[in-house]
Amino acid sequence: MCAIVGVFDVKHASKIAYYALFAMQHRGQEATGISASDGKKIRTIKDNGLVTEVFNEEKLSFLHGDMAIGHNRYSTAGSDSVRDAQPVAASYKLGDISIVHNGNLINKHEVRSKLVEQGAIFQSSMDTENIIHLIARSQQGKLKDRIIEALHVIKGAYCLLIQSRSKMFAIRDRYGVRPLSIGKMKEGGYIVASETCALDLVDAEFVRDVRPGEMVIFQHGKEEFESIQLFEPDPHICAFEFIYFARPDSVIEGKNVYAARKKMGMKLAELAPVEADFVIPVPDSGVSAALGYAQASGIPFEMAIVRNHYVGRTFIEPTQAVRDLKVKLKLSPIHKILEGKKIVVIDDSIVRGTTSRQIVKLLKRAGAAEVHMRIAAPTIEHPCLYGIDTPSYKELISANKTVEEVREYIEADSLAFLSIEALKESIGNDMNYSLVSFDGNYFIK
Amino acid sequence: MCAIVGVFDVKHASKIAYYALFAMQHRGQEATGISASDGKKIRTIKDNGLVTEVFNEEKLSFLHGDMAIGHNRYSTAGSDSVRDAQPVAASYKLGDISIVHNGNLINKHEVRSKLVEQGAIFQSSMDTENIIHLIARSQQGKLKDRIIEALHVIKGAYCLLIQSRSKMFAIRDRYGVRPLSIGKMKEGGYIVASETCALDLVDAEFVRDVRPGEMVIFQHGKEEFESIQLFEPDPHICAFEFIYFARPDSVIEGKNVYAARKKMGMKLAELAPVEADFVIPVPDSGVSAALGYAQASGIPFEMAIVRNHYVGRTFIEPTQAVRDLKVKLKLSPIHKILEGKKIVVIDDSIVRGTTSRQIVKLLKRAGAAEVHMRIAAPTIEHPCLYGIDTPSYKELISANKTVEEVREYIEADSLAFLSIEALKESIGNDMNYSLVSFDGNYFIK
Amino acid sequence: MCAIVGVFDVKHASKIAYYALFAMQHRGQEATGISASDGKKIRTIKDNGLVTEVFNEEKLSFLHGDMAIGHNRYSTAGSDSVRDAQPVAASYKLGDISIVHNGNLINKHEVRSKLVEQGAIFQSSMDTENIIHLIARSQQGKLKDRIIEALHVIKGAYCLLIQSRSKMFAIRDRYGVRPLSIGKMKEGGYIVASETCALDLVDAEFVRDVRPGEMVIFQHGKEEFESIQLFEPDPHICAFEFIYFARPDSVIEGKNVYAARKKMGMKLAELAPVEADFVIPVPDSGVSAALGYAQASGIPFEMAIVRNHYVGRTFIEPTQAVRDLKVKLKLSPIHKILEGKKIVVIDDSIVRGTTSRQIVKLLKRAGAAEVHMRIAAPTIEHPCLYGIDTPSYKELISANKTVEEVREYIEADSLAFLSIEALKESIGNDMNYSLVSFDGNYFIK
Amino acid sequence: MCAIVGVFDVKHASKIAYYALFAMQHRGQEATGISASDGKKIRTIKDNGLVTEVFNEEKLSFLHGDMAIGHNRYSTAGSDSVRDAQPVAASYKLGDISIVHNGNLINKHEVRSKLVEQGAIFQSSMDTENIIHLIARSQQGKLKDRIIEALHVIKGAYCLLIQSRSKMFAIRDRYGVRPLSIGKMKEGGYIVASETCALDLVDAEFVRDVRPGEMVIFQHGKEEFESIQLFEPDPHICAFEFIYFARPDSVIEGKNVYAARKKMGMKLAELAPVEADFVIPVPDSGVSAALGYAQASGIPFEMAIVRNHYVGRTFIEPTQAVRDLKVKLKLSPIHKILEGKKIVVIDDSIVRGTTSRQIVKLLKRAGAAEVHMRIAAPTIEHPCLYGIDTPSYKELISANKTVEEVREYIEADSLAFLSIEALKESIGNDMNYSLVSFDGNYFIK
Predict the structure, then answer these.
(1) Beta carbon pairs, B and D, within 8 Å
(2) Which residues pair with D345 in a beta bridge?
(3) Which residues pair with A68 in a beta bridge?
């Protein structure tokens, strides 16, 4: 899961991109990069680390120009090197180009094989490099047409921002799996970002979302951006954006994330009621749903787990039970509140089950008499292939165990999940969602 | 405001001190240090930065031994150098000694003048150095008696941990202004820390608080620690520990901080009710009190401000309205929730008024129809001289303006503070508190 | 000017490459990189900085395997980014490949244009990327044949090391402009390096030089390396390797660099004698020639200029006469020796004239009565296009001024250069040299 | 062995101190520090590392003011911590004070014991701290008189620079063991430094040396500095400054170091002639003496060992024969020159014998037929207690072995040292030298 941002026709474009990436940093903490164009040349800086670690005033000054695109990547297995940071910048027949990508191409191996067969070289393992090759190899005369040709080759979930020396293209796949919003800067110019919270931070006014299947083109001298509907829209907005990834203050397709999460909690209270003294969230991800659960059930809400936000790069001796310690360093239960009480604890999801197991243990050790876990999402039974880094079937606990078996494993007194139906109702029945992790309906063919 | 920790008679003492300091890091982010003794020599490492920035596996290995003391300092004006980091370690007539200190000595200038008159040199601006000089200059034969002599010279609020090569002393002033708790490690040995959350993280069992006016002595070969009541206790526990500094999961003098904060919110609801659609906290410091306010008033609780925890060392261009941006980078309101609504926003205190003013502005810009600010503490009208880094009278807004004038300045629709009486009731009327910031009663003479 | 190294069939290949690069570090100080293969995968680490700055034990351990290639780059204008560091590693149809290159391709723009026309993308500005593209696009079935095809497209001066997962290729252009030597490791396996001083450091035995126009192939299971003479040899060994770049202890085509430099000094003494009290070198580059001049002329040799080797990254305020200070920080004359004396000062070359001018000034200020500058190379009148980073005609002082005018500019009492004929005799008349900088004979067509 | 510098009454004093320390960096590479006064306050920055590593433009700007003192320390055993870096700055009765010290106090333990007995605390292991304590404890009214009182307590070899907020004191012990020179800055103001090479770099004009037993006082408003002869001079200039420590371009007591070293080589040629093909130096320390040996003997001089100046912090695997590798990384013999030849190799001293042994081995492996080692100093048979970090008797090879036994150990074909008499003649018989390392005459009582 990544954050991408594009900024067009503004002063100090790379600084605005920096702040926008900063707002979306919860989406990615491993690597970050920005490329900027001053009309003559595209310059790029990217490295491992947080936004604030990779950039400083001097580096942003180097990236001068009035347009920029940026990327912030979440840790993904096997890509421990800076060579897999984005943007991917290159020069090709028409000049400099730079691309950032959020999503996942399902036919990347076929595309790569074909390209390699034709003599292409790959300097990273990112599927983003596929796209740049397809654009470079197109016989079309204009970049726009080359991009369109490339988009007809790739399949998958993608939000793309492509920058030439003078134009910027924003593209969303026909399913609209990943969100992408357009904002207008106060002093003129545009910003396009994965999340509306980025627009808010830089004081941009929300214009509209890029539509599923749409390509938006920003060019100098034109006040308005151009829109081309490339593909028939078939919206499947990723439900996980609402469940976990997006920031509560963001708005996706007109729906506020915090409000949606609260409704998930409310539905959960209806579907899986329990008698308890308190409702508590696993902070920070379970807070909104827990508030909803509390409001719907009438059970008091308490913040009985304190989160330590300084964890960062704490070294931990590998000889100890490391995973245990990691949760302990991050989450501390309030003994005095929990002692002898029956607790409903709300979290956003269960993936492998190990974290939930430790949380139940922490709460019981802190004196909780009963721990009832309620998950504000359905059981994750399938890997997402559309941009979320879920593990394989083997590691997904709900792909291998019944709810009762999971409950036993995590040692909770009871356990319940939201139904898929209730999830959809919570976000809004007026839209279609990508629910692959829950129902295994891999709709991208 | 600092965090101190001492660890005695355990394996890898410096590692345990590291984890304990990590748990208490909200108390200090500027500089940190640990000194450890292996019975022969005291070694010290200290530097500017977070606990996780200053230490790594290698440095903690260098600090080997079975006892250690550590310190984590909050940013204080004018002390931008590593020379003001603690512990202060020195060698003197009886050998190596190391000290950490949380608090403030009110007669430090007199003591320093006298020492300087006698030929002492000071290599820092910390009052901790006073204490080490007094100990070194004492004519007493034993360290214990030297410390006692020194303690009869200094006046103020202090929690001290003093380490020789083989003993550790924990001392709390007779007023008990700053907290200090003793825990027992599972595999033997002791930990003494500013906050019980440190004990929890390292799995230590709470034994008891160090008593006001008490000196506790840990020495090898004695299973039990020795206790000497040096001064008549006259308890004045700092109310600000409950209001702001301590972590919600900590317990001070038997009182849980989270519970106390919730009660402050409840009292506030009674004293300063208002009709509103939502109660929202300023995260993270106002969360507990806001929950109390919501529960007592029956007004729904919402987390309508999102906090960005990555802020850290974000560089901010000084040409902009910097203070504004700082608050914006940290706090993001959820527009969809706030639009057109009447809001009660709960914060823990108002010092200069600038932050509150920006928060009201953020909320109004996000669409809030009315913003009623409620502060879960009384008006701060006096500088604390007992260890909290409050500004001078000139900068304290409530020392210079009436509540109505403050309301006008921060542009809230209404504003109310907790009464001193209600504050005391919230924490518990069975104890005496240090309330100097509120009532100007400077009880240490 | 770069250093390259390849190591084949040895334990800890990347460590040996590291030490070899370290020995050749005078050739490059700006960026360094190593890629290693363990038979399954090629891993690469490269960054700006000295060999010792880029690598540590941990990084070399990451680069495990029994073969490695490495590169160390000299500062070149405009390439201030890590993206122009080598090796260039990529995956293509036949798997992983990595290349390092020392030299310069004269038809790189044509080749790049053609490749770009065919849809290739370039992620750096290095001509090395051309070669990898040509290999990837070849229709040949085997890597060896693809490389050969590529070599028939490129023109210029090059030494290449190419690594697949299991083989290593060492290639030298038909002119043999840049040196490349093969050594045998004591415990088996091979090393190929730009300079024999690298072989000495890692205790490898010199086997022979790679021949002009030859491709040498190292593969597992074959004790002996394979040799293919790809092009008719037409040797033009770069004279500048002898004059300046190579280390005095290195041996190129059987000729020791130190001995050659001494002979240049001797010839210079014959051609341009002068009455003087002392011969002094500009350290370190002029030392060998100065010794030769002294021995031939009978004038005493003195080390009257002290070189400060710590200069490195000294920051220098840009407001001052920076170039002046830079020379001053590096070179300090010994006043007591120089006062009132007639001095012959020997340097290896004059490029822009600015450094020579400052050296004369330093010596005069230190009291020298007369400063006679003797340059152990002919006048540089043409840019080298074969791998040495010489400036354009406009900046080359000898392309624009007569020797007398240069003398005037540098304010020396007399000035003389070596003749081209004498240079050739000094190194040895049995070989043909690349002398483009001196005679403008651009022999590569 | 350290470098100290003081700068008085100049603009950007800390920058000038920085450049002066940079010039003297061969004297110390482990830690460096500067303190500066702007008339109101003394600020200090010090850390482990080279001059260029510890300071940058920003840090020097922080150290603003018109006077500064600085220190650069050589690696000494057991002091691996920043707490032993100088200057030592403190505040005492009369205000701020800062001290740097080059030398060694022989009664430091007695002084420290007495101070500690009186209640002093020590925050480092440096004897410099003794001096600051003595000054602080003096009953004298003025700093000058306090310093004088302190100087009557301490015994040993010392050059001191002491800075108050408005004055600077330069002091040299009555033996003048360590050098200290005064220079006048071109635009007014003074510099005092351990070596005249520092004066040259910052364009200061040499005024004179501080005299043995003299205190020089610089104060604002007085064009001329004040001089007080505190002690009867009894000059014993350290011979090792001429042999090894000082830079060849420096001048000590009117004697140029390079010229002295050449004479040592000449004397050595007279005393210990040998038939040989070449004279070669161990670079860089043996170069000057080797030139002298060559000139006196008529044997040709060759630079047959190349020194790699990039060594720095090369990590070296501890499993290998580390010491061997260290010499190899630094020194590379030129095989072609050495093969089959009889060599005289000149070095400046033999301490433990291990390095000499490796050099002989390197030369023999490179093909030298005979290796005759000549040392341009007498045998080191006693530890220097006056500021040079020589090892104990046990480790000094010449304290335990005859010259013949040393020769056997280092495996040279012959070995000879300079006589003490010849050493004195080489530097000049008009002065008295500290020769303790050679004759064990510990003249400071």
Answers:
(1) 58
(2) D280, D373
(3) A7, A36
Q: How far is CA D127 from the centre of its chain?
A: 17
* A96 known member of a binding site: no
* Nearest to B20, CA basis, from D65, A308, D9: A308
Alpha carbons D354 and D340: distance in angstroms, whole number: 24
| Strand, helix or coil for residue A259 | helix
**What is the per-residue pLDDT across A163-216, written as a single tens digit (0 to 9) for each?**
999 999 999 999 999 999 999 999 999 999 999 999 999 999 999 999 999 999
Interacting residues of D383 by C-beta distance below 8 A, sequence separation 6+ = D390, D391, D392, D393, D396, D437
Encoded tokens for C110: 């044509």
**pLDDT beyond 80 at A224:** yes
CA B177 to chain centre: 11
Identify which of C249, C317, C329 has the shortest CB distance to residue D333.
C249
Give yes or no for a cis peptide into B284 (omega within 30° of 0): yes
Question: In the numeric block, which tokens belong to residue C77?
Answer: 């204008």
| Residues contacting residue C132 through CB under 8 Å, at least 6 positions apart | A121, C88, C90, C92, C97, C99
Query: Are residues D387 and D177 in contact, defined by beta-carbon separation less than 8 angstroms?
Result: yes
Does any domain span residue A252?
no
Can you tell me which residue has the tokens 């995260």? B283
B112, B208: one domain: yes
Do B265 and B387 have their domain in common? yes
Q: A328: pLDDT confidence band, cut at 50, 70 and 90? A: confident
Average pLDDT, integer, range C231-249 = 96
Beta-bridge partners for D434: D238
Read off the tokens for D307.
């020194």
Q: Which residue has the tokens 């997904």?
A: A396
Amino acid type, B299? I
Contact B291, B431 (CB under 8 A): no
State which amino acid sits at residue A105: L
Find the domain containing D120 and state its range: 3-235
Check residue A75 and give its pLDDT: 58
A216 shares its domain with A296: no
Q: In terms of domains, do D225 and D327 share one? A: no
User: Residue D3: its chain C contacts at CB < 8 A?
Assistant: none
- pLDDT bin (cut points 50, 70, 90) of residue B84 is confident
- Tell me the three-class secondary structure of D312-333, residue by residue: CCCCCCCCCCHHHHHHHHHEEE
Q: Is residue D252 part of a domain?
A: no
ipTM of this model? 0.93
Higher-scoring residue by pLDDT: C250, C315: C250
- A262 and A220 housed in the same domain: no
Q: Is D199 in the same domain as D335? A: no
Question: Which one of A91, A93, A116 has the shortest CB-CB distance to C92?
Answer: A116
Question: So what's the pLDDT on residue D1?
Answer: 78
Determine whether the interchain pair B335/A249 forms a contact, defined as Cβ–Cβ distance below 8 Å: yes
A137: domain CATH number?
Answer: 3.60.20.10
pLDDT tens-digit profile of A111-145? 999 999 999 999 998 989 999 999 999 999 999 99
Looking at the structure, do residues A122 and A267 belong to the same domain, yes or no?
Answer: no
CA distance B341 to B353: 23
State whether B136 and D117 contact (CB < 8 Å).
no
Across-strand partners of A2? Answer: A73
Q: Are residues D175 and D288 in the same domain?
A: no
**A208 part of a folded domain:** yes
Confidence at residue B79, expressed as pLDDT on a 0 to 100 scale: 42
Name the catalytic one among D2, D159, D197, D238. D2
B310, A22 Cβ separation under 8 angstroms: yes
SS3 C198: helix
CA distances (Å), D212 to each of C110, C177, D102, D234, D445, in order? 73, 61, 14, 7, 16
User: Strand, coil or helix: what is A185?
Assistant: coil
Chain B residue nearest residue D129, CA to CA: B121
Provide the domain count of chain A. 2
The residues, any chain, with a CB within 8 Å of residue C438's CB and separated by 6 or more, are C239, C377, C378, C379, C380, C381, C382, C420, C423
CA–CA dist D32, B81 (Å, integer):
16
